[in-house]
Predict the structure.
Amino acid sequence: MTPGRWTICALLFFATTVNYMDRQILAILAPLLGREIGWSESDYGLIVTAFQASYALGLVGAGRLIDRIGTRRGYSLAVAFWSLAAMAHAAANSAAGFAWARGALGMGEGGNFPAAVKVVAEWFPKHQRALATGVFNGGSNVGAIIAPLLVPWVTLRWGWRWAFLATGSVGLVWVVVWLAAYREPPVAAEGGGGRHVRWVSLLWKRETLGLMVSRFLTDPVWWFYLYWAPKFLHARHGVTLDQIGPPLVMIYLAADGGSVFGGWLSGWLLKRGWSVNAARKSAILVSAAMVAPIVLAPWASHLWQVVVLLGLATAGHQAWGANIFTIVSDLYPGHAVSSVVGISGFAGSIGGMLAATATGFVLQATGSYVPVFACASGAYFLALLAVHTGSPKLAAVNV
């Protein structure tokens, strides 16, 4: 018997939590592995790039695959693949070995969001989709909190290889539970696996282009928080490794709250009689306004002022994400949802790669975070304009 829709949402939440745990391990263990394996800073940069590049490709490929074979099989294949890739890190003994394992991890992890968004579209009515998306998307923040608590504990007791094996095995357990518990709803089973939409026909829809531009502008901001927030706290406020835990936990807890809030807000507006177009875009506008104050971060004089600004900004991003994912299921039929999530996510990953390089050059040349935070502050308003230009009324797309 298939579990209820909120139990299914809980399974999506746990898969997303594991997804972020697996991708966070390397950053946590990087100093230790750098000494033990003997890689350079440039080696580490190539390892990170291998993940981001393969993740971009994985989003497109997995999204396409899931639309063709369905969410039950497609999601389980994605999680099994990335879990085995995570465990494969334990066998690496060189920078090249880690780059190959990281590339495989990115390829598999690209399947998480296309699959999860499609499951929500299959099981939840429109007024609950954004909330359900916000709930499962909160797993990304929980994973980012659990990893720095779990990984050092396992590493200090059994060694770093066991940290990769332990988190990877959790994903394999999830696959067993998913296959045992989940069945696609009859409508999805009839319309999902057999119907085929040409990838190119989706790509050149103006609605798709609007979503791609929006993700290209905003996904890099989230990657910036992940990669540079600890460095910024250290550079501007002297936060050391043994002090970084509480600030990061507070930031990601705020992000979790924002994820649920953003999904709840558009659903609440729908229940009050607002149109889908007005409800989603109003929630996105509120999300953009939450991010805007981050421009003040370089001038904040106290650590916890910065933590509040970063917490508000990450909450705004996650509220944004809950609605931008849901808009895909508002616009496209079920058999195209995963493909469009993958295509737009690919654009976001490319934006993240370019922005990471640009951020490094800006900081190296100027030593100032002011232009970086200024770009982050305004990106969401431009992204909202892109969404509105692509779909002024959020009318269903004929594919």
